[in-house]
Specification:
Elements lengths: L5 H10 L7 H13 L2 H12 L5 E2 L6 E2 L12 E8 L2 H8 L6 E5 L17 H9 L7 E4 L5 H14 L5 E4 L15 H9 L9
Parallel strand pairs: 3-4, 3-5, 5-6
Antiparallel strand pairs: 1-2
Helix pairs in contact: 1-2
């Protein structure tokens, strides 16, 4: 496509680098910016630039506006630690309002084919956090993807912590509410059967 301006072309190229954004969508976004006032564009640009101020906590590896972080306010349940792949998983779990403990972000899952080995993840800091003398952690909840890589990572971490006096748990996996069995993949359906629970008939 030939663009009427080199600035538009450059902006389209940059927008199309974002996940799920193709050239056509990128062009629509750029034209939207052109149609807005200058303040809108400046505000957007400043919000992106300000991301460079974000810090990573050396303990939990979550992001913070401050250098370091308290790894959660005191009102949180400090006896349970939820281990996740990345920040998106933290936000997803927090949105349920069902979990009130601490988090630990691994920064990925073990995937040798992609060159992601245990030493490239925040697993050592996880072990140190659990085994620290002042640790209050009694349970480690492994909330990792239901993939081969995720399962490998769960197994690896469980082995690393097996000698510790902490409970190791994983999130329940099964058939989603409202779905038909014929459309459920074999792994999910099989796990649902293996991890079946007693049906409570009490009313």
């Amino acid at each position: 496509m030939e663009y009427p301006s080199k600035y538009i072309e450059k902006a389209v190229e940059e927008f199309s680098k974002l996940p799920g954004i193709g050239k056509k969508t990128a062009l629509r976004l750029v034209l939207h910016f052109l149609g807005e006032n200058e303040h809108f564009s400046e505000s957007f640009a400043n919000s992106i630039t300000s991301l460079s101020n974000i810090q990573e906590c050396p303990t939990c590896h979550m992001v913070s506006d401050l250098e370091g972080c308290t790894c959660g306010p005191e009102k949180k349940d400090r006896s349970i630690l939820c281990v996740v792949d990345d920040l998106r998983d933290v936000l997803a779990i927090q949105s349920t309002n069902q979990y009130h403990g601490l988090f630990h972000v691994l920064g990925g899952v073990i995937s040798p084919i992609d060159g992601i080995t245990p030493d490239k993840l925040h697993i050592d800091s996880l072990v140190k956090r659990v085994t620290a003398k002042d640790s209050e952690i009694k349970e480690v909840l492994l909330a990792l993807p239901s993939t081969m890589e995720g399962e490998t990572t769960v197994f690896y971490i469980a082995r690393k912590l097996k000698e510790q006096a902490v409970k190791i748990s994983t999130i329940a996996r099964g058939v989603p509410i409202g779905s038909e069995l014929e459309y459920t993949d074999e792994v999910t359906l099989g796990r649902s059967i293996m991890e079946r629970v007693a049906y409570n008939t009490a009313q």
